[in-house]
Amino acid sequence: MSQEHYILDPTTVGSAVSPSAIPETAALTGFKDIVFGSTAGIIGKTIEFPFDTVKVRLQSQRDDAPLRYRGPLDCFRQTVNQDGIRGLYRGISPPLVGAAAENSALFFSYNIAQSFVRKNLYTDLVTDKLPLNALIFCGAVSGAFTSFLLTPIELIKCKMQVQTIGLQRPISTPLTTSASGLPGASARIHTIAPIRHAGPFALIGEVYRVYGIRGFWHGQVGTFLRETGGGAAWFGSYEYVSGVLRKWGGRKTNSAGEQMMAGAAAGVSYNFIFYPADSVKSRMQTEAIGTKGDKMESFWTVAKRMYKAGGIKPMYRGCGITCMRSAPSSAIIFLVYESLKSYFA
Predict the structure, then answer these.
(1) Where are the alpha helices (DSSP H) in 89-194?
(2) Euclidean distance between CA atoms 110 and 332, whole angstroms
(3) Do strands 188-190 and 172-174 pair parallel, antiparallel, or not at all (unpaired)?
(4) Which residues are CB-contacts of 195 (< 8 A; sequence separation ≥ 6)?
(5) Do residues 311 and 228 make contact, with C-beta atoms less than 8 angstroms apart?
(6) Alpha-carbon distances, residue 87 vs 55, 282, 286, 292, 344 (angstroms)
(7) What is the pLDDT of residues 160-218, one digit of tens each?
(8) Cα–Cα distances in angstroms (integers) from residue 94 to residues 213, 304, 318, in the given order
(9) 314-325 confidence digits (pLDDT tens)
(10) Rounded Cα distance, 290 and 273, in Å
(11) How many angstroms separate the CA atoms of 158 and 225, rounded?
């Protein structure tokens, strides 16, 4: 990812550059990171969300009961049969907000971390990019910061995504014709009334009523582990693959296709390496809301129970479809971000 660094030319001090120019430039750069990251995140999330719904439903299956789904394709089929295509987008409102917040925070804090590291640890660098190990560290810092914004959003999202599991669709049965001829033989009645599910604001109120403010960060340890390690892998993979492609092509910048290739590699590495942490988090966040005064299980308690029930296998349930959807999603995110940054440079 190309980074712009604004270096003060000593020959202009006291003449062409006013003291206010530097913070204004830094503020504008930060604003662009937020806007471009938000836009890229919303587009990427819209593309990947149906796959995310399947992933969460696979992860939420209990270990002490028969599995409801035989795999990703079976989960996809059952979801569509039960709720239609709309069911794959159930709960998308919080994730769209989350995607905007996540990607804006990731890109913003990633660039802030680079500026800090350059200023304090690599003072001899002027225009060269930071070394890869420093970029990986900056990615980890970015992910750690972003995790605190994501946990409440993902909590509501996960609860909405599993609302219809185990429920039947309204079905119709034919009525027989009465002696008076009413109703007709083709008349049908619904034997199961449609169920109205709680929306995001209702769930927010319920979580607060039962658990208080602290309840919105249920699963924070899992999000922190996933985002810290994932942020390092995401940005590290993107920077590494981008650099390799530039070297092979003998160019100073990457083409749109190369940006997408590097973004796809970043998405897969982000999701695969720390997937077990995400599985434990999803299990915690899809549990039914209890009653006031109930205590929430810790990350390590849930992780040990999952491992004891099935070993490492349950922790990678849904990993294949997650990596499959993360490749195009991350490719689009980096392409949109880099394109906007280049266009409005």
Answers:
(1) 93-120, 132-161
(2) 18
(3) antiparallel
(4) 167
(5) no
(6) 13, 18, 16, 30, 37
(7) 877 665 544 444 444 444 455 554 444 443 334 445 566 778 889 988 998 899 999 99
(8) 17, 29, 21
(9) 888 888 888 888
(10) 32
(11) 18
Q: Is the pLDDT at 236 greater than 50, yes or no?
A: yes
d(CA 289, CA 232): 33
Q: Quick one: CA dihedral 204, 210, 216, 218, positive or negative?
A: negative
**Which residues have C-beta within 8 Å of that of residue 106, sequence separation ≥ 6?**
37, 142, 143, 146, 231, 234
Quickly list DSSP for 199-236.
-HHHHHHHHHHHH-GGGGGTTHHHHHHHHHHHHHHHHH
pLDDT in tens, 97-129: 888 988 999 999 999 999 999 999 988 876 668
Residue of 272, 66, 37, 289 lying closest to 142 (CA atoms): 37
* Tokens of residue 133, six digits: 């190990």
- Residue 189 bridge partners (DSSP): 173
Cα 337 to Cα 26, 42, 183, 261, distances in angstroms: 18, 11, 60, 14
Cis peptide before 183 (omega within 30 of 0): yes
For residues 238 and 334, is the Cβ–Cβ distance under 8 A?
yes
Handedness of CA 324, 265, 145, 299 (dihedral sign): positive
Query: Distance (Å, rounded) from C-alpha 319 to C-alpha 51?
Result: 11
d(CA 7, CA 160): 48
How far is the first Cα of the chain from the last one, in angstroms, to the nearest whole number?
14
Whole-angstrom Cα distance, residue 269 to residue 240? 12
Cα angle 330, 27, 38; round to 5: 25
Query: Is 174 in a helix, a strand, or coil?
Result: strand
Max CA-CA distance within the chain? 102
| Mean pLDDT value across the chain | 80
How many whole angstroms separate alpha carbon 180 and alpha carbon 89? 46
